[in-house]
């Protein structure tokens, strides 16, 4: 009998999804342990004492942290369909794009989506109070929003080019790069809907949008994809909470 596999996660986390979908593609039985990130358990703190974040993969007595590192560990530790190419060069290229998505694309994409909404909450009270200094800071930050949006669009264009003529980033099947980019397929759309911002559009990025539809329609992916309606409801309640806090500061 093999060693037990457990995954410490949290509802709706795109990073946890990366690890979970890799396990499902490999056909690895696992136990999902849902964490309350407002009251972190001793189990999480013990196995990820550095960052204290999910996901954490527990394989027997070993613990592995960071979503893409977990995906690569799953690839090497378990049999099943390959998530990375067999060719060393192609494998290196896949790792490059996965790292690019993790370090560049997701950061700018989330900021391009969320920051304008956050900034609007700061700008209104500044205008009402007629505070020139606060207003100037808000305007400078609005200019920064434009720069972030420009970078986000440039990053998306680079990914768009990688999909030309392909169903998925690695070819005909889902692999490491698709798993790395999975937040673009589901989570970014949720944030855009809640924040009223449209960055990843069919008009500008047709290949990426078609890829996103294919990804979330995959039968294995569907098994561990959070409900969009539930996700929207959760983030909408957070949005209203932030708005209420901003309104209270105007009084």
TrEMBL record:
Q: Which residues form the GST N-terminal domain?
A: 3-82
Question: What do the Gene Ontology cellular component annotations say?
Answer: cytoplasm
GO molecular function terms noted in the UniProt entry: glutathione transferase activity
* Record's catalysed reaction(s): RX + glutathione = an S-substituted glutathione + a halide anion + H(+)
Recite the UniProt keywords alphabetically.
Transferase
Classify the source by domain of life.
Eukaryota
EC number(s) stated in the UniProt entry for this protein: 2.5.1.18
Among Gene3D superfamilies, the record links this protein to: 1.20.1050.10, Glutaredoxin (3.40.30.10)
Q: Which GO terms describe its biological process?
A: glutathione metabolic process
Residues of the GST C-terminal domain: 87-235
Q: Which CDD domains match?
A: GST_C_Tau, GST_N_Tau
One Pfam assignment? GST_N
Q: Which family does it belong to?
A: Belongs to the GST superfamily.
Q: What PANTHER family does this protein map onto?
A: GLUTATHIONE S-TRANSFERASE, GST, SUPERFAMILY, GST DOMAIN CONTAINING, GLUTATHIONE TRANSFERASE
UniProt-recorded name of the protein: glutathione transferase
> From what organism does this protein derive?
Eleusine coracana subsp. coracana
What is this organism's lineage? Eukaryota, Viridiplantae, Streptophyta, Embryophyta, Tracheophyta
């Amino acid at each position: 009998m093999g060693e037990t596999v457990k995954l410490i996660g949290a509802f709706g986390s795109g990073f946890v999804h990366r690890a979970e979908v890799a396990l499902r593609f490999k056909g690895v039985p696992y136990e999902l342990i849902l964490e309350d990130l407002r009251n972190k358990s001793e189990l999480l703190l013990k196995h990820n004492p550095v960052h204290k974040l999910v996901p954490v993969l527990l394989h027997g007595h070993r613990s592995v942290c960071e979503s893409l590192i977990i995906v690569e560990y799953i690839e090497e530790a378990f049999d099943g369909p390959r998530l990375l190419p067999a060719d060393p060069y192609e494998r290196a290229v896949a790792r490059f794009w996965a790292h690019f998505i993790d370090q560049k694309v997701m950061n700018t994409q989330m900021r391009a989506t969320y920051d304008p909404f956050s900034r609007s909450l700061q700008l209104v009270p500044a205008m009402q109070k007629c505070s020139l200094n606060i207003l100037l800071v808000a305007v400078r930050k609005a200019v920064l929003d434009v720069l972030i949006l420009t970078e986000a669009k440039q990053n998306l264009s680079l990914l768009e080019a990688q999909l030309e003529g392909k169903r998925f980033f690695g070819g005909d099947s889902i692999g490491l790069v698709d798993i790395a980019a999975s937040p673009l397929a589901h989570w970014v759309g949720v944030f855009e809907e809640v924040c009223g911002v449209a960055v990843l559009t069919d008009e500008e990025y047709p290949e990426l949008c078609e890829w996103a539809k294919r990804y979330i329609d995959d039968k294995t992916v569907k098994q561990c994809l959070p409900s969009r309606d539930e996700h929207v409801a959760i983030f909408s309640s957070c949005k209203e909470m932030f708005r209420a806090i901003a309104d209270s500061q105007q009084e």
